Amino acid sequence: MTVRSASRKIFDFGLLRRVFTYAAPYKKQFFFSITLAIVLAVVSPVRPWLIQVTVDKYIRSGLANLVIVITLIQIGLLLVETALRFSFSFITAWLGQTVVKDLRITVYKKVIHLNLSQFDKTPIGTLTTRTINDIEAVNDIFSEGLISIIADLLSIIAILGVMFFTDWKLTLVCMAVLPVLLIVTWWFKESVNVSFQKVRNAVAQLNAFAQEHITGMAVVQAFAAEDREYDKFKRINKEHRNANIRAIFAYSVFFPFVEIIMAVSMGLMIWWSARDALQGEATLGIMIAFILYLNLLFRPLRMIADKFNVLQMGMVASERIFKVLDNPDYIVREGEHAPAQIKGKVEFKSVWFAYHKDNYVLKDISFAIRPGETLAIVGHTGSGKTSIISLINRLYQIQKGAILIDDVNIDQYKLDILRSKIGVVLQDVFLFSGSIQDNVTLRNDSISRNEVIKAAKLIGMHDFIMQLPGGYDYNVMERGSTLSLGQRQLLSFIRALLYDPSVLILDEATSSVDTQSEQLIQHAIDTLIEGRTSIVIAHRLSTIRKADKIIVLDKGEVKETGTHAELLEINGFYARLHEMQFTRTGAR
Ligand SMILES: Nc1ncnc2c1ncn2[C@@H]1O[C@H](COP(=O)(O)OP(=O)(O)OP(=O)(O)O)[C@@H](O)[C@H]1O
Ligand SMILES: [Mg+2]
């Protein structure tokens, strides 16, 4: 819908101006290309004009040696024109690529600083399209669009001017075909434009579909849904082909049609000249020159509709890109507080938080932990445990209340400092494609292999890693798909340990594992939380028991607070939860 309505807008100068601000650092090249366009426009009618003069003046008057000079001049002009044309295409393409490079960096920088909630709302495929495909269309504005249109218009004007100057009546006769040409061009431009919008939509759909289904292939195959998905893919693919064929149809009709119009124009010209000749007015030189003029004229006329489409698509794309760039929902980094060390006191004061508007998932949450203590958060699924910990390093912004670390509001911290002092191990561990080393150091070269090995030994993963092919250089496949959930979480423990945070946040994986792995994980957790303030979303009774304080969450509210023993004593919510989660399945 938005694509269509945007494409309806024929010309948006404000948008274009903004696109061209990205060319501002390359003013020299930009003006050079415009100058080249002007020079080319002026130069191109010169050769036909020279021919006319040669034929009419010198050949007739038998000035043979001048003819040779003029031929040499012609050759010289041809060479100059070729050089100019080459420079023009090169410089506009260079400009396009350079602007695209800058713009892509700007967009990517913006995207990585967007608030996390934006990624909950926007499909990943869309953002990928913005940073890759749409920007490519902006390139075309420079290399094939605007400057090239200006160049074409200039040469059309120059050629028409010379034609009028030479013989205005003959020019009018030739241009009698103009209305037909305009109508056909308009039809062509519109139908290609519509088809290309459809092609773009179909491509986006194909991309999104393939991306999502290849990611979720296990589900597709497990539910034997291959045929259904295959049919759906076939349908989108067919739409893609149909849209392309409609565009191809328009091209195949338009270009021959323009040839015909040009032939008609040529015919009219010859007819008129012949008529004049009979009356002894026309000259052979003018006729030859006009044949060349018409050729020169129709070349840009044929391409201009196409270029206009390119320009329009570029503008649609840039409009979408600017929408991303103008997104006000980015992380505010105004905090200045940058202590060298954090002691680790964490306090929530009446915190209210909603992902969307007033739909609060955390209501009036208050608690405090002292440096070095361990806090366990327990509660049913969806009660808001993960949400609480996302707030501490400001992945999301709270609506009401305050979160304090060492008695300073987290908003006042420099964001990088805050995040580097708080280590987070998430529930679902994300691994990047790359070696184990890269994954646990996050490509931080200042962390040596020895440190990694030391941390891995502490966590108890060294032996496991060593038996992988390549050991620490083992190549983790996309999203860590070749490792088990438990192994992935253990790798993220190494990651957290290496960064040695003052406050550790741990969202325990819920997966039940065998006793041996259980011991490994338990040992790893003990190592991790040793000596630092820890907030653990706990699913293991052993972790909960060791905690200095437990808060029990239910539907976004703190129901009870206390130690394991105290809470069992109250015999309330926690006691029931404990009964449900641990006693029946056998305490671990
Ligand atoms: N990114 C998000 N955008 C919107 N709503 C969300 C988002 N993440 C979580 N929610 C909602 O917030 C509520 C709390 O979710 P949260 O992930 O904090 O639960 P949880 O206690 O960690 O559950 P679990 O034990 O299953 O991990 C849920 O109702 C969930 O639907
Ligand atoms: Mg959770």
What would you say this structure looks like, in words?
The protein has 588 residues and is α/β, with parallel strands linked by helices. It folds into two domains: 313 residues, ABC transporter type 1, transmembrane domain (ABC transporter transmembrane region fold); 238 residues, Rossmann fold (3-Layer(aba) Sandwich), CATH 3.40.50. The longest helix is centred in the middle third of the chain and has 53 residues. β1 and β2 form a beta hairpin. A six-stranded mixed sheet has the order 6-9-10-3-11-12, with helices on both faces. A four-stranded antiparallel sheet has the order 2-1-4-5, covered by helices on one side. A two-stranded antiparallel ribbon has the order 7-8. It is elongated. α3 packs parallel to α7, α4 packs antiparallel against α11 and α8 packs parallel to α11. It binds adenosine-5'-triphosphate (ATP) and magnesium ion. Adenosine-5'-triphosphate binds next to α12. The site of adenosine-5'-triphosphate has 12 residues, from α12.
